[in-house]
Specification:
It is a single chain. By secondary structure, the chain is of the alpha/beta class. The chain has one domain: Uracil-DNA Glycosylase, subunit E (3-Layer(aba) Sandwich), CATH 3.40.470.10. It has six helices and four strands. The protein has a four-stranded parallel beta sheet with strand order 2-1-3-4. Helix 3 crosses helix 4. It is globular, with a radius of gyration of 16 Å.
Length: about 200
């Protein structure tokens, strides 16, 4: 763990105490040295309380533990359906640290996500500002919005692909945002979202 990461962990522990697990090695983004990704896939955090496994790379992309095979297969298939792969995008988590609770059960996650935005924005500065962010979860969208009044429900966004990508001026990363939610209701392979999928294919063609 480098000095910067250690400082970040200490700050988080001071802010959120027992909610932050004292794991001093954050997962690395994948691929580490990509220069011009087609998109940035943004996850929530690396927490996996069921297995308590430390990852080498985000999303378990070291692919060394079969416990995450189904998780990765779903992502591989979803990305392939819009003409992408993990080798052509940059994958990172909004919160790089491990928590004591899973995202949806974590009462401090939104505040921790807000804490991480500045660090993520600095990290992504190495990429063109028009490279879009694929948001893996609706909670990421809520954290990134500058004005909560601009929030639009997932069903509405997936039903109105003409709105995608979402305006970069409305979010704290100042980058185009694309909902690409992991939730089963928004599986990109569902025929219900054929128009939405077609829009994403067009964006990344």
């Amino acid at each position: 763990m480098n000095i910067a990461d250690n400082d970040i962990l200490l700050k988080l522990q001071n802010l959120f105490t027992d909610e932050i697990i004292d794991l001093k090695k954050f997962p690395k983004p994948f691929p580490e040295n990509i220069e011009s990704p087609k998109a940035v896939l943004l996850g929530c955090d690396p927490t996996n309380t069921k297995y308590n496994i430390e990852f080498e790379y985000v999303f378990a992309l070291e692919r060394k533990n079969n416990k995450f095979n189904s998780f990765l297969k779903k992502w591989d298939d979803s990305l392939d359906n819009i003409g992408l792969s993990f080798d052509t995008i940059y994958t990172q988590n909004l919160c790089r640290n491990y928590f004591s609770k899973e995202t949806t059960k974590n009462p401090i996650w939104i505040e921790a996500g807000k804490f991480w935005i500045t660090y993520l924005k600095d990290e992504l500065n190495k990429f063109n500002e028009n490279i879009p962010i694929l948001m893996s979860s609706e909670i990421i969208y809520k954290v990134l919005l500058i004005n909560p009044k601009d929030y639009k429900k997932a069903e509405f966004l997936y039903s109105n692909p003409q709105l995608i990508p979402l305006e970069k001026e409305l979010n704290k990363l100042n980058r185009p945002l694309i909902p690409f939610y992991r939730h089963k209701n928004y599986d990109i392979k569902n025929p219900k979202w054929e128009e939405y999928k077609s829009k994403l294919i067009k964006i990344f063609k």
